Amino acid sequence: MSAQIDLGEFRKEVREFLREKLPVRISNKVRSGLRMSKADYEEWHAILNEKGWLAVNWPIEFGGTGWTAHQRFIFEDEMCAAHAPRIVPFGLMMLGPVLQKFGSQAQRDRFLPRILNGDDWWCQGYSEPGAGSDLASLKTRAVRDGDHYVVNGQKTWTTLGQHANWIFCLVRTDTEVKPQAGISFMLIDMASPGVEIRPIRLLDGEAEVNEVFFDDVRVPVENLVGEENQGWTYAKYLLTHERTNIAGTGFAKAGLDAVKRIAGQEMAGGKPLAANPLFAARLAQVEIDLMAMETTNLRVIAQVAAGQAPGVESSMLKIKGTELRQQINDLTRRAVGPYAIPFVSEALDEGSNAQAIGPDYAAPVAAQYFNNRKLTIYGGSNEVQRTIIAKQVLDL
Amino acid sequence: MLRDTLRRFLSDVYSDEQRNVSLATEHGMSREIWLQLAELGVVHALFAEHVGGLGGHGYDIATVFEEIGRAGVVEPLLENAILAGGLIADLGTDDQRAVLDAVMSGGHQLAFAHGEPHSRYEMSRVSTAAKAVGQGIVLNGRKAVVSNGEAAQTLVVSARTAGEDDAEDGISLFLIPADAPGLSTREYPKIDGGFACEIDLHDVKVPDDALLGRSGDAFPAIEARMSMAIAAVSAEALGAMETARQLTVDYLRTRTQFGRPIGKFQVLQHRMADMLIEIEQARSAVLNLAAALDKPRDVRERNASATKNLIGRVGRLVAEECIQMHGGIGMTQEYSLAHFARRLVMVDHEFGDTDHHLERFIALSQARG
Ligand SMILES: Cc1cc2nc3c(=O)[nH]c(=O)nc-3n(C[C@H](O)[C@H](O)[C@H](O)COP(=O)(O)OP(=O)(O)OC[C@H]3O[C@@H](n4cnc5c(N)ncnc54)[C@H](O)[C@@H]3O)c2cc1C
């Protein structure tokens, strides 16, 4: 039980592991805001997997860590502080738990080990052009034809789909019932004939999301997860499943450290920016909020340890955490002054000959600021989260 | 008059595609568009009558740049007409001003090389050194984020001829041809459109008559021109806000989720209403500064800082709220909003940001007593 775990020891063990095993090449890339390749993620996943620390929220029986929420919090905190790449969440954090709870034995045997070994890269096919916040209105159709489903439709905003060989999708299998009751959860091999993927460029010029098109794609019925038309239940399970790390406290702390470092180096009026009263006040304000949020996060974790499922608290953490991270991105952008303006995309490639224009730390900050506007849009927009709080906590 | 002509012209020709064409062209500008703008008299409108222009007053600047911002024009009007061209008009001899005809008709590009790697937003922090040597002057130093610097045939370069690195006294301006020996540039795209460059000056030798205005005495002119530049980018931001707002209102009317247009959700209605109020504040701030540009220095500068501070805050609000209320679409490069949102945020990195001007406003107010 969690009471027996010495969390201080655990933190030391994690820190030690990161110091020994996190490749400097990779942590330097994360620290400098350089582009991460598929191979970088795979290399880091493999290192974690060798240690048995890749599936942080899987039970031990499936090859996971079996960690408590508090351990996971500490792990993420240390990972962020050490500039480790984030664990790509789609297979590990999202699909894994669904298969463990609702998948067939055959699906678990087939897919879970491949997620751990890095044989498969999964992406998440929920959103559609017409179905964002109102996800239940999704239209991608799957029609049974013998021992296959034939899938037609389009998914969009598919993060890192360009690296993926599998996609888990919500598809419509019944059009006669109310929208939530006609959705199924399906696993689709991206190499199937009729699957087409196209990149979407975002505000920072990067193509981290994609459109995925399905044109008469034949999916074997054994790739249906659970029961037909029960997909909404599974998707909701995923959305409420132990999302105690949704605040991204570790990312916020690492971001705050970074902007403090920058403010110590930037000069404003002959003094370090960190000594400028206005900027110092802005930094302090964020730090004060972050200190409280970390405790809020730990309080929610304590509730989980006491056996309560985090429900609406994850909405609270999501709102506060993402908005704080955006404030930190904003301060970082401001901190570098006019050198936020140059944008030399090649300078973000590892080993590029293109030198940064101003100080090295300035190169990615404007792009990161724009990119992280996504934090309040995805994962259930902050507007949608506020409605959940209003309805479920305040009973309005 | 000019407002209507310019708005009509830009709405006819300056689409997202045109902007992309401009940005993909050398130095990030379309020569055709530039010549057409010049032909319409847009560049003339920004110069004073005594140098052959049509006005160049606060309202001319506000009018032209609001339309430039509304259409998202990336061509270097500010660099040519307000900054470098403006300084030549203000300080130049007849000989030096001769180049302005070509500038106004679109045949000559200028840039103002003033900021340095460590000057941040301090107008008086100039370390680039200019020293008299026999017949002429030799310059050494580095200039940072010089907008339009690579395209320019002639640069107006600030350098220190006397005093400490951050002293207002002792700054001089020089007219330097872009191909002067010892002058090297490194060009790059700006994240919000257009191009800038870093300029290294290594023993760049210029004749005595390259000096623009009196030696060591350029600060007041630079400060006045910076205020005009603030008026210009603030008006530009106002135009960009209007476009961003319109795109967002249109989207809220047409995007349906949960069986109704998302504009029917009251929380989004209130946020649009707040945005509208703030944009009207921005419009008033631009008007305040336009009116103050001809006023005595203390009035002018206090208004410049007030306006830039407010525009910085509202620009960021409008950009962030418009992205957010669009959802995923608002994050995409291809959608019209992208350019306007980026520009609105990055305006805060030019000519002093929100905090810089808040401090400056306080200092100027206290000095007034
Ligand atoms: C970078 C990025 C990565 C993503 N990755 C993935 C992925 O891998 N897989 C995937 O399936 N999806 C992904 N998404 C999609 C994401 O989940 C959706 O963008 C999100 O659900 C919002 O949907 P939407 O973009 O259609 O916006 P809309 O739902 O159209 O919302 C537009 C605006 O209206 C607001 N709004 C909507 N309904 C209401 C309401 N009832 N009350 C008040 N306000 C409301 C929203 O909050 C938002 O501000 C990603 C999105 C982004 C931006």
Structural class determined from secondary elements of chain B: alpha+beta
The tally of structural domains of chain A comes to 3
Strand order of the largest sheet of chain A: 1-4-5-8
Q: What is the arithmetic mean of pLDDT of chain A? A: 95
Number of distinct helices of chain A: 12
Quote the CATH topology of the largest domain in chain B: Butyryl-CoA Dehydrogenase, subunit A, domain 3
Number of strands of chain B: 10
Supply the number of helical segments of chain B: 13
Assembly state? heterodimer
Helix content of chain A: 40-55%
Number of structural units classed as domains of chain B: 3
What gap, in angstroms, lies between the N and C termini of chain B?
41 Å
State the fourth-level CATH superfamily of the largest domain in chain A: Butyryl-CoA Dehydrogenase, subunit A, domain 3
Highest CATH level, the class of the largest domain in chain B: Mainly Alpha
Question: Could you explain how this protein is built, in words?
Answer:
The complex is a heterodimer of chains A (396) and B (369). With 396 residues, chain A is an alpha+beta fold. Chain A has helices at 7-21, 24-32, 38-51, 69-81, 89-102, 105-117, 231-240, 249-265, 277-305, 313-335, 365-371, 382-392, and strands spanning 122-125, 141-145, 148-155, 166-172, 183-189, 195-200, 209-220, 224-225, 267-268, 271-272. Chain A has three domains: 2-87, Orthogonal Bundle (Butyryl-Coa Dehydrogenase, subunit A, domain 1); 121-228, Beta Barrel (Butyryl-CoA Dehydrogenase, subunit A, domain 2), CATH 2.40.110.10; 243-392, Up-down Bundle (Butyryl-CoA Dehydrogenase, subunit A, domain 3). In chain A, helix 5 crosses helix 7 (231-240), helix 8 (249-265) packs parallel to helix 10 and helix 10 packs antiparallel against helix 12. Chain A is globular. Chain B is α+β, with helices and mostly antiparallel strands and 369 residues long. The longest helix of chain B is centred in the middle third of the chain and has 36 residues, at 219-254. The two termini of chain B are 41 Å apart. In chain B, 56% of the residues are buried. At the A-B interface, strand 9, helix 9, helix 10, helix 11 and helix 12 of A face strand 6, strand 9, helix 11, helix 12 and helix 13 of B. Flavin-adenine dinucleotide (FAD) sits between chains A (124-127, 132-133, 157-159, 209, 374, 377-378, 381, 383-384, 387) and B (255, 257-258, 262, 265, 267-268, 324-325, 327-328, 331).
